[in-house]
Amino acid sequence: EVELVESGGGLVQPGGSLRLSCVASGFTFSSYTMNWVRQAPGKGLEWVSNISSTSSAIHYADSVKGRFTISRDNAKKSVYFQMNSLRADDTAVYYCAKCGGGWCQFFDYWGQGSLVTVSS
Amino acid sequence: EIVLTQSPGTLSLSPGDRATLSCRASQTVSSTDLAWYQQKPGQAPRLLIYGSSSRATGIPDRISGSGSGTDFTLTISRLEPEDFAVYYCQQYGGFPTHSFGQGTKLEIK
Fold first, then answer.
1. Nearest-CA residue of chain A relative to B6?
2. Shortest CB distance from A47 goes to which of B37, B43, B98?
3. How far apart are CA B24 and CA B105, in angstroms?
């Protein structure tokens, strides 16, 4: 059974930093691109970043580019999201999601989410 | 950037009814690149449909997807109590871009 478990969320002041982690199980982690998708309170879904299986290709949405960094450790079956210079509009539940399809056309498995609250 | 517009914003129906949810794209989307998700309160999204019409693992056949070009539809033929949730369409605009519609809330009438 595929499982994705996020951790690391919490309350942080504007301008602060936080690091999210996602541990995977139930599939060959090292073969798949992984994503972070966020959802602000009461709002819709926003893709924010992904990282290829070998970390050779990394991409970000414009909303987080230059502030957030995605990384992975295939030996630990984990993907990370370092979030710096946090702003109030970064407040959201952050989901780790596994790519599906040959070109990552969709997200076939999601974690339960980790809430990040940016507030003074 | 392709924008997805879902309609209606809220759909009020009764168990046993047929639900038809629409997703319209601002530009042509390949049929292979359109997916649908269900999200219940406090839960992560769950993949329902990928490639416009292929059901994900464990999804019952009363849930179906169709469409092409700029117009896509999610149909639930006979609503069960567990179907009342928010539904999102999502398109893949060429690696790495992914975008979602704003969602349709399916509520009990």
1. A44
2. B98
3. 16
Tokens 């309609």 correspond to: B7
Decide: helix, strand or coil at residue A105: coil
- Tokens describing residue B106: 């399916």
* Residues above pLDDT 90, as percent of chain A: 95
Per DSSP (E only), the strands in A1-112 are 3-7, 10-12, 18-25, 34-39, 45-51, 58-60, 68-73, 78-83, 92-100, 106-110
Residue A19 has pLDDT above 90, yes or no: yes
Q: Distance of CA B49 to CAs A32, A120, B74, Å?
A: 20, 41, 8
Q: Tell me how far apart the alpha carbons of residues A111 and B4 are, in angstroms, rounded to a whole number.
A: 24
Question: Six-digit token pair at A110?
Answer: 């999601």
Q: For residue B17, give how far its alpha carbon lies from the nearest alpha carbon of chain A (Å).
A: 26
> Is the Cβ pair A110, B46 closer than 8 Å?
yes
Q: Hey, which residues does B55 pair with through a beta bridge?
A: B49
